[in-house]
Amino acid sequence: MVTGRTMRRRAMALLLVVALTITMGTMTACPWLGGKEDRSLVRVRQAGVLRVGLDASYPPFEEIDGATGEIRGFDVDLARELGRRLGVEVEIVNSGWDGLYDALEAGRFDAVISGLVYDPWQTDRVAYSISYFNAGQVLVVREDAREDEEAIAQVGDLKGRTLGVEVGSEGDVQGHELRKRLRDLTLRPYPAPTDVLRAVRQGEVDAGLVDAISARQFIRTEGGVRIVGPPVSDELYVVAVRLEDQALLKAINAALVEMRDDGTLSRLADKWL
Amino acid sequence: MGEDKAREIMVTARRVWVGMQVLVIALILVFGVRPPQPLVTLGPQRHVETINPKMGVHTRLTDEVEEWKIKRTLEMVREMGAPWIVEYFPWAYYEGEKGIYDWSHPDQVVDHARRQGLTVVARLGYVPEWARPEDSAFSYLDAAHYTDFGDFVYAFVDHFRGRVQYVIIWNEPNLALEWGFQPVNPAEYTALLRIAYARAKEADPQVQVLAGALAPTLAPKGHPEGMNDLDYLQGMYDAGAADVFDILAAHAYGWRFPVDDPPAADKVNFRRVELLRQVMVRNGDDHKPIMVTEGGWNDHPRWTKGVRPYQRIAYTIGAYELAARDWDWCLAVAPYAFRFPRPARSYQDYFTFVTPEFKPKPIYREVQRYARGERGEGW
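Above: the input entities. Below: the structure tokens describing the complete assembly.
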């Protein structure tokens, strides 16, 4: 039986915990109470420039234009659009991949936009945005493939079918994994993703398993195939900022949501992929 | 009546208190005490079966914490058919305080490797904080502390006498990144090498000291990021390096070029090693062998220096074949890297043979088939 006195003690303890939590939270948020003020967005806006680090060695997301020497690509356009929405110019800083995180921490730039894949191991040093592109493996079938109950709409429908993969690729590795659980799945290896996709179009195989970028580029340049189902695996491209730059991250996330909702991200993908 | 009631309450309270204590102890036993860890043993002595005894691979066990993963990695190297491994042993990890050494982790790596029948080539570097200024890079070592590194080399070679017969002194000293972000200087590296060589031989006259491990680069003279590897090697000889190493360590990356692409001074490809060899011959060092302690190809789908996965397989096997067939001066070829403890989630993952979860990539299976003599000509 709980007495009135015990109840009062419990209530007091609860109040104390709530008060402590509020106090600590307030101190963290309020610089005049000992917390650190996040001026990251103010800093970028006052400078009038968002410095974006990337390694221009990964077309079509970032590469050096052989004719002009300028850096171009999906990520460059994305960075410029982010800058426009934040009301600042964008400065692109080309840096070797292996030093991107270190250079971000050292303040050489404000953000990294470089086909960067979300990495849970780095979350103690950087903060990631929401994803703006998924470059994971996708299932591809002929454009005029049937859409009835016999259709291939997801990997579970591959039983008894023939799947084309690029030999040695991530699709090949995943295909071998699928074969362990899907009865009578036959893998057919090809030298390159374009060979896989041509085989799909020509009906040599029932489906192909390739990365989303290769699939989209093939659909744009040659056509005759389409992507079905959700991605078979995820490779989420994200923007990284310094861990303490939460205000900047919030603004970038808001802009990315806008860009997703108003179709800007889709248009960028259509332009470059 | 009142006393009885009070006694009853006391008894109940005591029972509840004892019951709670029992419950707490039970919870501690269930959740607080770790179950006994599976015992990882060295197991029986194994031997590598291969048609090509020059096959090697660069492992990355430095940051692998769990012993069973160390063992499994090395088992898979053996099963692939590579008798050589190159592994990184960072000075800072083992001598956290001057003169205080902790060899527990490298002992695990070396003992498991040897039990799998593998020969270990130890790359030594990474300066501890106590041997460099605050906020300096891990690769920064001023001349005043060369003797500290010499002491570490002595301690390492002494500790692993009879178990590790090959040590590489430093890594890619021709890059500013690997030379403490200072201007690179072959004479300075040679001064460091001289001390390391003497201390290594003092600890074990039989140990073989590998020098160089230069990054293949075309950096022009005076470039802030590095020095052309051929010029750097000549600079080492000019500083008297011939007397202070037994084997040249070479890094042979093929980038987008096939394995048989001919060497040229203005090109970084796999056979650039032959140009290093020419520098050695020119300096009267033709009796010394070379060991490729890093290199290979990368099959990231979009990196401008990458090749397709089938090409990586073909070129890698071609590199092993080339060393066995044409490079009588080459002891071993160890491509970078066998497996990482965790995904790098970048192009680095596309150098590996096995995933962090020990899933063999197709290149692993094909190299294994080659080592077993199961592949025909012309791959």
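Note for the figure: The first strand of chain A starts at residue 49 and ends at 54.
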